[in-house]
Amino acid sequence: MSASESWRAASEALARRLRAVESRNVTFVSGDFPVFWERAEGARVVDADGREYVDLTAAFAVAATGHRHPAVVRAVREQAGRLIHGMGDVHPPAVKVELLEALAGLLPYEEPKIVLGVTGSDAVEAALKTAALATGKPGVVAFTGAYHGLGYGALSVTDRDHFRLPFEAQLNPAVPRAPYPHPFRPPQGLEDASRPGPALAALERVLDAPGRGDVGAVILEPAQGRGGEVVPPPGFVAGVRDVCRERGLLLIADEIYTGLGRTGRWLACDAEAVVPDLLCLGKALSGGMPISACAGPADVMDAWPASTGEAIHTSTFLGHPLSCAAALASLGVLEEEGLVRRARELGERWMASLRGMAAAHEVVGEVRGRGLMVGIDLVRDPETREPAPELARRVVTGALREGWILLAGGPAGNVLSLTPPLTIEEDLLERSVGILDGLLAGAREA
After folding, report:
1. Are 123 and 294 in contact (CB under 8 A)?
2. Angle, to 10 degrees, between the axis of helix 321-336 and the axis of helix 94-104?
3. 217: β partners
4. Which domains, and CATH codes, for the chain?
5. Buried b (16+ CB within 10 A) or exposed e, 397-419
6. pLDDT digits over 35-93, tens only?
7. What kind and span of H or E run contains 215?
8. pTM tops 0.85, yes or no
């Protein structure tokens, strides 16, 4: 038995079976990846080999209320005992109405209207369609570093070439890009990203360029998630809103990653008292079931025509009963357990500890984030800030062997992306600092 098989024999067997039947593009398989999950609870995961891990990702930031929260499990079980599938846009399940009402009560609109989807990409594409209907214009300004999903509409406003280039010819060409102010890694043409002014001026230049009369909206992540846990300088999000208002453009806020408590506020936009024209939610919405939402005020959302029996934007699993029940329960847990405030307070303490630890490692260029969304930017050289993706991979692999699940994110894959459940025990976060300290020292020496 090899050294790797000694700790992941069952996962290796499952990986071989998976490779035989799944497209080779989907799941990365190597000597150490993946481990196959069997069960999870709270912040802990158990794999097919019976090994336990601490999940510092909340499974792509989805399990905000923790894996298998009792209230969510109970809601899904009870719903499954009554109705598993309905006819979402013809004869809807009653629980869809309950969810829409509950969600509407949390939104920053006087008369909100909502379109449900299954994935985050669905929510973004509903927002893009809404903007096109409301403005009569196909163009949307997106930002460098942005990630909005991989459906063709969402991919058009996603920025990473890795995802875009194979399908470039099929994407909306009316998507100019403005530089997102990444204070640690300013994009090309934006030398000063530590304050909002230069980035807002760059946005204005993009909008003033010849042929940009077809732009009707701007899509923005108030803090970038898959872009590397990037928090823009204070005033940027509010400044983008002001530019949109002055020019009669719609502001779409993609809060699929940041929304519903992740950054220590219900919405990341709340940090600057910004109310977007359209809001995209997902991930944490249900605590684990597939569901998303695009929401906005009635005067924007009513750009959609009334249904005459055949909706022009729908899907078979729209308002799926199990997902709606899970989302209702998850929203309740977020409120009743005070998880938004907990994320803010716990995140501040954890960030301070991580920064203290990082000071001893020159390979850590920056520790940044908000709430329980933290990125550790690893570099080859502290002077040049050259990304160190190979170091990040060693840390992630080393953590897996130690029983901790991390992700390497950002465009270069050099950012340790930490988005634990909002319910995670504080002692686990404290332990994680020591684990990362040792892994960074060991990975640097390797």
Report:
1. yes
2. 30
3. 140, 250
4. 35-65+338-445 (3.90.1150.10), 70-336 (3.40.640.10)
5. bbbbeeebbbbbbbbbbbbbbbb
6. 999 999 999 999 999 999 999 999 999 999 999 999 999 999 999 999 999 999 999 99
7. strand 215-220
8. yes
